[in-house]
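Appendix B. Raw example, untouched.
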Amino acid sequence: MRLLLLFVAVLIVVDALVGDRGLIAMRDAKRQHDELAATIARQRAENARLRDEVRRLKEDPAAIEELARRDLGLIRPGEKVFIVKDLTPPPKP
């Protein structure tokens, strides 16, 4: 009888450690939850930044000009563009 009770107790402890809702599964779920929470926080910050950029582009003509100059390389009429090339040779590998 004692041997049977010991066997059942061992089974319960093993199930508590490695079962579907055991300690190891709960630890893995907690880690996954933390990773997902961090991903959500990053996405929320990115969304806030993009909303701010949209607001600036809708309301501020200087922001549109800055974007056009930086990303598209546009210039105003009458401006002159000077292209400066670096004459130093690249380092040899």
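End of appendix B.
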